[in-house]
Amino acid sequence: MIHAETLRAEVDSRFDDYLETLFGLLRQPSISAQGIGVDECAELVTQTLRDAGIDARILTTDGSPVAYGEVGPDDAEFTLLVYGHYDVQPPEPLEEWDSEPFEPTIRNERIYARGVGDNKGQFLGSILAYKLLSELGAAPPIKLKFLIEGEEENGSKNLRAFVNTNRDLLSADAFFAADGPMHPSGRPVVFFGVRGMLAAEVKVRGANRDLHSGNWGGPIPNGAWKLVELLSTMRTPDGRAAIEGFYDGVTPPTEFELKLLEEIPFDEAGTKAHLGITEFDGPADMSYYEKIMFQPTFTIAGINSGYTGAGKKSVIPSEAVVRLESRLVPGQQPDQVLEAIEQHVRMYIPDAEITKLAGQPPSKTSPELPVSRAAVSAMEEAYGVAPVVMPLLGATAPNYVFTDDLGLPAIWTTYANYDEDNHAPNENMTLRAFRDGIVASAVLFQRMAEVDVT
């Protein structure tokens, strides 16, 4: 096994070439939400895989193509499925960029470009890691399969169908992805799952049109008040959902996971000051990270009713709309939670309109598995410091496709700097973060060869 410091020196000697490869990807727009440059970028990623010595090809979906590649012995005892996405967020507002979003620029030891941290600079680290090990005569005796999709920033809407159509092709012993920012302390993060998500809209009505609040005020139902009174029945003062069946199936954290939560660095006072708040919301008997990872949410994402423009308008609103969002935890399913919400709403307003907007199940891998422990150990060796280990993130990703549909343990790491500003103007990745990501994947691939999957 080649150790991290040796790998780092080898990366440094090739770093100009690695930067040029990255810059080529960054110069190619690939905005899935707008359909700009996606096919061209898929071809470029496929060629990048081939240039690294990986057998690669384009695979079609009902939307954006997938760049797929594999390398390693067919009789390998361990197969790792490596995931990434080549699509990026729209760059707007363009006037807030200090340089062109699709012309990578180095300033202050950082690479500035749309997609550099999310996710081109991160998945490229794994491709270059294999190339480096191969050039050093140390390609690990495992099978590597690369799945780089083009719709993550647009909801990965065709990923599940693609994966299930290609189950045999994508069969593996574990799933790995590098995505997201490091911890504010500068330590890498290893996480093993994500919360799910349900988004729904509830629309209630009073009269069949807005009415004069003087001529009609009193006997005529007010759509806004109907909605406000409904919402007041749906949440308890301590922040829990007051909806029967909402928490059915919720799986509490294990003792090992609770211990991991205690070890996550957290600056309570600094966080409150940063957000301009004095108290945290939610159940008082739960820690900050337990609320983030193991407590489902019931969030009002937006409300619309009546008139709030300039001046005054005397009106009884006929209609009121609320957008609700719940982040779901292991043991919950979007449709199960939606049904509970629907039953609750109809107890109070039988004719309310309820529309499901989006849903994605939660997913979690045990951090106690041998493959999970191997990944944590690899990140510690690569970075020279213990990573921050999180049982799961509060955010949502299509992790369930790999854990539930393919039955794989899923490991996620973060290679981008904490202040990468992904999705924002001036997205960036430090040169060090890009360099260290290559080293980290190289160490990880070697460690995976040592995992006993029997």
Please describe what this structure looks like.
The protein has helices spanning 4-27, 38-51, 116-135, 159-165, 223-232, 255-263, 268-275, 288-294, 334-348, 370-383, 400-405, 431-448; strands spanning 55-59, 66-71, 79-85, 105-107, 110-112, 143-149, 174-178, 189-191, 193-194, 196-205, 211-212, 299-305, 315-316, 319-328, 353-360, 363-364, 388-390, 410-413, 428-430. By secondary structure, the protein is of the alpha+beta class. A hairpin with a 6-residue loop joins strand 1 (55-59) and strand 2. An eight-stranded mixed sheet has the order 1-2-6-3-7-18-8-17.
Low-confidence stretches: none
Alpha carbon gyration radius: 24 Å
Helix content: 25-40%
Strand residue percentage = 15-25%
Shape: globular
How many E-type strands? 19
The CATH superfamily of the largest domain appears as: Zn peptidases
The N- to C-terminal Cα distance equals 22 Å
Observed structural traits:
Alpha-Beta Plaits, 19 strands, alpha+beta, 4-stranded antiparallel beta sheet, 8-stranded mixed beta sheet, single chain, 454 residues, 12 helices, Aminopeptidase, 20% strand
Topology:
Elements lengths: L3 H24 L10 H14 L3 E5 L6 E6 L7 E7 L19 E3 L2 E3 L3 H20 L7 E7 L9 H7 L8 E5 L10 E3 L1 E2 L1 E10 L5 E2 L10 H10 L22 H9 L4 H8 L12 H7 L4 E7 L9 E2 L2 E10 L5 H15 L4 E8 L2 E2 L5 H14 L4 E3 L9 H6 L4 E4 L14 E3 H18 L6
Parallel strand pairs: 3-6, 3-7, 7-18, 8-17
Antiparallel strand pairs: 1-2, 2-6, 4-5, 5-19, 8-18, 9-16, 10-14, 10-15, 11-13, 12-14
